[in-house]
Write a structure and sequence with these properties.
Shape: globular
CATH class of the largest domain: Alpha Beta
Helix content: 25-40%
Distance between the termini: 13 Å
Number of helices: 13
Order of helices and strands: EHHEHHHEEHEEEEHEHEHEHEHHEEEH
CATH topology of the largest domain: Alkaline Phosphatase, subunit A
CATH superfamily of the largest domain: Alkaline Phosphatase, subunit A
Structural class: alpha/beta
Strand order of the largest sheet: 11-10-12-1-13-14-2-15
Strand content: 15-25%
CATH architecture of the largest domain: 3-Layer(aba) Sandwich
Number of strands: 15
Length: 385
């Protein structure tokens, strides 16, 4: 039996007035999603444990089958694993977004420096490292605006805010708080020096958040008895794969944005199933469109998954004879809010031994034949463990 998870980051949404009071999934061409929903099972997954933030880290751990209440230790250490950064037990890792602030540096205009290029982002990180040389902190370039800072000291009582949650808002209300917050604020303010001395397009600042220390995750083989592979562009998902002993599959043109190589990700995932039991594909496009507040781009992202990925995936899975596929968002990213919410997400399970239910289309309003309040339990159900 082969198992494939297609994780469509941030794909679910609220009803949108300009779409005739339909959601993105109801409005877009989702013919291939609908076919699988009609011939498979649909249900709801609560990916966010009570009291936890609906970040992609928490939500994806749930879909992988890891209880975030046990295994979650912060977002950034997972990303660090993808970059091969050595983390000691007492180190703290921060996501370092390259951002765009207003001219008076009071408002967050864009959490991604208006999607700063890889080349410019690398230059920013190199310049910041030079600025903070031998000060006990190190900066590492990731993908585009997504970068990291490692501190060789603890910040266990610190609280930070994701920059995509405060678009258009006054940043003074969302600066880090708690023990050590003055250190982190000072680093962000000192980094302003390089932006005053150099031009980096629209990017003009950094924002530190997503802090955490080294996690302890079990291997997927020991937990579920499967050899796994991960197809993803973003370091967070690849980092989960690294910590759980999965193979990381690199796809040319996979950007973690709405211009990603949809077809290539599908093709590489199917090929990975030839040597692995389980493949997890992560597609970021709909989430990025949600953060941009763009209905048009989010519709396009969903239709690209429907038209470019699902035909390749399903044709490939058929060659293996026995297979199952799970399709789900990790969390909603409503375009009206431009950030994540903790609502349950609609999922499809299709394949060998799956009995069809009453659903004939796929949307946020499916009639659930399964529902998991503890979202991580979806893995056992999907894998029939």
């Amino acid at each position: 039996m082969k198992y494939l998870v297609l994780l469509c980051d941030g794909m679910s949404d609220f009803r949108i007035e300009e779409l005739g009071n339909k959601t993105i999934l109801e409005y877009a061409n989702t013919s291939n999603f609908d076919k699988l929903a009609k011939d498979g099972q649909c249900g709801l997954i609560y990916t966010v444990p009570e009291g936890m933030y609906p970040g992609s880290d928490v939500c994806n751990l749930s879909i992988f089958g890891f209880d975030p209440k046990i295994y979650y230790s912060g977002r950034s250490p997972l990303e660090a694993a993808s970059l091969g950064i050595n983390i000691n037990d007492n180190d703290y890792v921060f996501r370092c977004n390259i951002v765009t602030l207003s001219e008076d540096r009071k408002k967050m205009l864009d959490f991604s420096g208006f999607h700063v290029s890889d080349e410019i982002a690398l230059q920013v990180i190199n310049d910041i490292n030079h600025l903070f040389n031998k000060s006990g902190i190190e900066f590492y370039h990731g993908v585009g605006y997504r970068n990291l800072m490692v501190s060789r000291s603890s910040f266990s009582e610190l609280k930070t805010t994701p920059p995509h949650d405060i678009m258009g808002r006054n940043i003074s209300e969302y600066l880090p708080t708690g023990k050590g917050s003055d250190v982190i604020i000072d680093i962000m303010e000192k980094a302003d020096k390089i932006f005053k001395e150099n031009k980096y397009g629209d990017a003009n600042g950094i924002w530190l958040w997503g802090e955490g220390n080294k996690p302890v995750l079990k291997s997927y083989k020991s937990l579920y008895g499967l050899d796994g592979a991960v197809v993803a562009a973003v370091d967070l998902i690849k980092g989960i794969g690294v910590y759980t002993g999965m193979t990381i599959v690199k796809v040319p043109g996979a950007t973690g944005f709405i211009d990603t190589n949809f077809v290539g990700k599908a093709e590489y995932a199917v090929n990975a199933l030839q040597s692995h039991d389980y493949v997890f594909i992560h597609v970021e496009a709909a989430d990025e469109a949600g953060h941009m507040g763009s209905v048009e781009e989010k519709v396009k992202a969903v239709e690209n998954i429907n038209n470019k990925m699902l035909p390749v995936i399903m044709e490939g899975l058929e060659l293996f004879g026995e297979y199952k596929i799970l399709i789900t968002p990790d969390h909603p990213t409503p375009v009206s809010l431009r950030t994540h919410v903790a609502d349950p997400v609609p999922a499809i399970i299709y394949g060998s031994g799956v009995k069809k239910d009453v659903n004939v289309t796929y949307s946020e309003f499916i009639k659930p034949s399964f529902s998991f309040k503890d979202g991580y339990k979806i893995a056992n159900y999907f894998l029939n463990k």
